[in-house]
Structures are given as structure tokens and as C-alpha cells.
Amino acid sequence: MLSLIYDSNKVSNFNFTGKKEGWKNSVLMKKKCSFYFQGMVYTPNGLESTCNTVIKWMKFAWSLSYWTSPVLLPIMYRRGFFTREGAIYLIEYASIAGLVLCFSYWLRGLGRYNNPDYVAFVAILHNAQENFTLQNKALLSRYDFDFFAWPVEYSWAEGQRGDGSKPKIQVPKRTRSFADSFTRIPCDVISYIGAHTFGRRMVYPGATGLMNALVSPMLMEGRKKLVEERQGIRTKLLSEDLNEIDTMFVDRRHTSSINGQTLVVTSEGNAGFYEIGCACTPLEAGYSVLGWNHPGFAGSTGVPLPDSEQNAVDVVMQFAINKLGFQPDQIVLFAWSIGGYTATWAAMNYPDVKAVVLDATFDDLTPLAVAKMPESWQGLIRNTVRQYMHLNIAEQLCQYPGPILIIRRSKDEIITTKEPGHIGSNRGNDLLVKLLQHRYPKVVDESTLSTFRLWLELAREDQIQLMSQYDIDDDYCTSLFRSHIAEHSESYPMQIGDGMNVELKIQLTLFLASKYMDDFDATHCTPLPALYFRMPWKITF
After folding, report:
1. Are the C-beta atoms of residues 156 and 313 closer than 8 Å to each other?
2. Residue 484 falls in the annotated catalytic set
């Protein structure tokens, strides 16, 4: 469906071309188009508007019936709807509803056919589908419409991974014996059903129809601002599993911004969208930004399961490197919340990227899922998450050798395992601990862990006081790392700390913690100010 027509004077000129795809469906009858011309909101005529209302309410009724089916089906059974007479009644009712829906679609198509604005849009869309040139893309980009009709401009098959020459890196999965697998079949069946019904919707509510419908007006307004005010370029990518990924690119390379040569690839949270999500932070800081929506979110198709998430961010990275022209060392991966999974997977598979910045991110989904559910469900929840929603962020992050910054929300109420805002149970702490234990195993060990945990439980002022008690000197600590790197290497895990006394190792541990983590005094969903978005610490010579 067409909603908006953008101001043609504010739409960006494009410096890359896409790939032609066939036009599969008639826009006249299938979807809505929301356009702007010189900032104009598309206004459907009376016939189209009436039919849109009928179609919308019928879809809502179907969705409501689907989600309330566990309650409706027993009621229908008790009232005799599953008898022969009841079945006949249901078939008659469904037939009438189907005819009304089909007739509404036909009448809506007729209304659009008699709307000059819509006819002009369809002509431009058809030309773009037939021959997706720069000129046709520029014309099509003036419109905001249902993304299914937008041509695919970049496919995973065009990238380096398309020929299989560079296999994807994965963290090894835990294996089970045959006997253990056999005895767990009933539990695995329940886990599979739970994960693929309500489970993934709880983990990724942004992929539900209800959430997409609620935020649709805000997403439309967000895209309008990105296109008209920041000259954003919207592009459809095709992932390896044939999901269509909705992206938005804002190019700052030709501006006066000193950060414009760096591309920030963002990964949103479980109810975040690039139109209104964390992409705003690097944009405010003057970086070039490539935002994308998870599978099933807004214009992206598919289901947000781990494999599809990996394929989505993989094609986004290929697009950034092969089509937009950024080298890996010009790319920063920035993620908020659950977006840390895709960001760390990308970092693991593209280890030459410039840096990784993680905001309000956790180490592993399992402890959070277990903490939010009844205690009697712990075994089932643990099995379900491990088998089908295993978001092992810390394990993936440890495979990345570059600079990392973790931003912790001191009042975070979402990724804590105790009461909301309990900073000591913030799983961002565990992410930092696991990272430093991997990178500096001789420093962050049993002798320093208790002091490290104490530091993590303190407010920023108290952290500074604790560090002053241990007389931590930044210059001295930095010199120790420089000496070690000069004598050995900067590869991880580093063996620095071997033979050091406990007090010096505590000094180095707290020094590292203060460099790898920043505190933001806010709740989970508070937008991150651009001031907090910085390049991570690293040893310089």
C-alpha cells in the first residue's frame, strides 16, 4: 500500500546500482502504498478507503481468532461447532467472509485504478521492476510503500561467500550422546513447538503482526526523516535463506564530518527498527550509517531465528563492503540489546572490522530466560533456548580480536536476573567478565575475580574510589601492556600477568574493566546520547 511521496528535492542521488527482479504481483490489488510527493501524504479515494477498512478489520479478526484459539476452540467444541451441523455453519460463514474479502480486494483495485496518483506510482514501479536503472530507482525512491514490491538490489550470491570460498565461522555447538538424545525426544518436541510458536515471539516481539501494526506510523515518519533530512537510501537485500532484508544507508563520506569515512552498521534490539532505533546515535555523531531490520521486522521477511539472523547480517556486511565500497577496517559494528548477537557474529566472521560497540547487551540468553520464567520450568526453558534460540553473544565476542566497548545501563530493568535495576545482576557484567577472562587469563583469574565483581556492583563514584584505593595509574598500566606486546604480540589470549603479584593483577583488572566498559545512568530503552558513542580503547604506540 502506498502511504507517502517524498519531497523530490530532498531525495538522495544514488552512486550504486541494483539488480533487476521480476514483478510478481499487481500492486493495484495486493498491498498498500503510502506516498509523499513534495511532502504529500497519499489520500485514497472513497472506494479504496472503505475497502481498506474492511480488509483491515477482517485481518484483525483473523489475527484475534488465531491468538485466542486456545480459548475459542474448547468453547466452540462445547457449543457443538465440531458436529456435522456445526461444520456446515462454519463453512458457510467462512465462505461468506472469503467472498467479502475477495470482493473488497477487487473493489480496492478498482478504486486505485481511478486514482491518478496511484496510477502514476504503479507506472514508475513497473518501469523499475522491468529495468532498475539509477533513474528509475531515483523515481521509485520518492515513494514509501509496502516493501514486498521493491526490487532486490543486492543478493548474497553476489558476495564473496556466494561461491563457498570462505565458509562461515560458527562457535562449536554442544553435542549429546545418542542415548541422551533418545531420552530427550519428548522434551525436544515440546521445546520445538514452544520455540516456534510463542517462544520466538517473546524473544523477538518486533516480528509479530501486532507490533508491526502498532509502530507502522512511527516507522513511516522515521523513514521520511531519514530520506528527506539525511538523504538516506533504502535498499532491499536478499539473504542466503532467501529472506528480503530492509536496509537504510546514510552516506556522510562527502560531508565535512570527520567521522563520515567510518561506516557504522547497526543491529537493533528485539523490538527495535532502524527507523526509530539505535541508528540515531551514530547519525547524531556524524558517522555514515547502515541500518537494517531483523527478519520479520517491518519490510524484512522471514522469521528471526539464529540462522536467519546470521544470514541477514552476513548479506548486510557483504553489501557494505562489495557495493557501498567500505573496507572492513572502516566499519564499526554497533548493537543495542539482543542486537549484540548479530553484531558479534559479524565481528567473528569479519575480524578485520574497526571496532565493536555493544549497548545494553548481555552474555547469553539462557540465564535471562530462566530468570523470567517459573522455577519449575527451568529445565524446559534451558533446553528450548539451547536448542533453538541459543544467542551465545559472549562466546562469539571472544572470537573477535579487535577493539571493544561495552556500554552498561546502570538502571537496566530488562537484562537483570534479579529485581529491575539491580546492577550486580546485570548480564552485561558477565559479558565483560567472560571477555576479559578470555583475553587476559593470567590477569583476570580466581585471585582477582572477587574484587572485579565488587567493582561491577558499585556505582560510578564508588568505582572511582575503589580504583584510587588500589592506586591505579593509567600510564603505568598502559606501559606494562605496551612492553608485553612489544616483546610478544597483541594476539589473544595474552599471557601478561604470569608471575605477577595479586595486587598488581587487581590493578590491571580494574584498569582493563574501566577501559572496556562505560556506564550510562539510564534504563534499558532510553536512547543513547551521541556523547556516549566513542571508539573503544586500544593500546597505541
Report:
1. no
2. no
270 and 129 both lie in a single domain: no
Q: Among 104-108, 166-170, 368-372, name the one with the lowest average pLDDT.
A: 166-170
Q: What total number of domains does the chain contain?
A: 2
CB atoms within 10 A of CB 531: 10
For residues 333 and 209, membership in a common domain is answered with yes
Look at the chain and count its residues. Answer: 541
∠ Cα 73 206 284 (to 5°): 165
Residue 34: give the domain boundaries.
2-158
Express each pLDDT in 296-318 by its tens digit: 999 999 999 999 999 999 999 99
Q: Are 44 and 120 members of one domain?
A: yes
Specify whether 207 is located in the same domain as 306: yes
Count CB neighbours of 87 within 10 A.
12
d(CA 423, CA 435): 18
Active-site hit among 117, 246, 359, 412? 412
Does residue 9 have a pLDDT over 90?
no
- pTM equals 0.87
Residue 181 annotated to the active site? no
40 compared with 39, residue with greater pLDDT: 40
Which is the catalytic residue, given 462, 488, 489, 521? 488
- 270 and 147: one domain? no
- Considering the domain boundaries, does residue 19 fall inside one? yes
Catalytic residue among 337, 363, 425, 430: 337
Residue 382 included in any domain: yes
- 518 as an active site residue: the answer is no
